[in-house]
Amino acid sequence: MTEIWQGFIKAIELIVSLDPEVMEIAGRSLIISVTSALLASLICIPLASVIHFHYFPGKRILINLIQTFFSIPTVAIGLFVFVLFSRAGPLGGLNLMFTPTVMVLGQMILITPILLGLTISALSGVDKTIVDTARSLGASGFQTAVVVLREARFAVMAAIIMGFGRAISEVGIALMVGGNIRGFTRVITTAISLETSKGDLELSIALGTILILIALMVNFALNRIQQR
Questions:
Q1: What's the whole-number mean pLDDT along residues 131-137?
Q2: How many alpha carbons fall within 13 Å on the CB side of residue 102?
Q3: Which of 11, 44, 120, 221 could form a disulfide with 206 if both were Cys (CB 3.0 to 4.6 A apart)?
Q4: How far apart are CA 184 and CA 207, in angstroms?
Q5: Domain membership of residue 101 as a residue range
Q6: Alpha-helical regions (H) of 125-170
């Protein structure tokens, strides 16, 4: 209990003093995770709309497969991205390995099933009469999709929040393809892993506390936007 209490005190000290290294790590974590969530949203929301509004053979199987990938281990995604972008991999020539860019790509792959599945569920929960009314008034397929998305915007925003939470809290991808390089790819989760392995539990608890505070502030901001 003493270590936990001292960890909380150290977290407050690091935040109040604006420790340069901690602020750098926290900023990098935030930028990578927010970028991943935004880029994945730009892809997944339109794709989820296409899947929801079109009927095709195997649609139910596809949705079940997407939902299955909700719980895919981060290390599995990390391994896939590592093989893809390593020097011997098909995309090794891009020289993206152990860079923030490949960490963003890995997190995008990780949260894509979550954003797709939850957005499809959000669209499915919209009252069918809204779709029928829009179509009866002469709305095109695109206009109907926009109307339905507006009705489901709170649930869609919740999906984005959940995707962000999954991205900022993962450690497997960040370690495997980021390399935990100090001053370049080190993020809060990999720093926690490193400090714990070194036996510095107080700093690990402090970093964990800062991570929770960052996630809390971002979720609070997104919820405020959602309410407006």
A1: 79
A2: 28
A3: 11
A4: 17
A5: 2-227
A6: 128-136, 141-151, 153-169
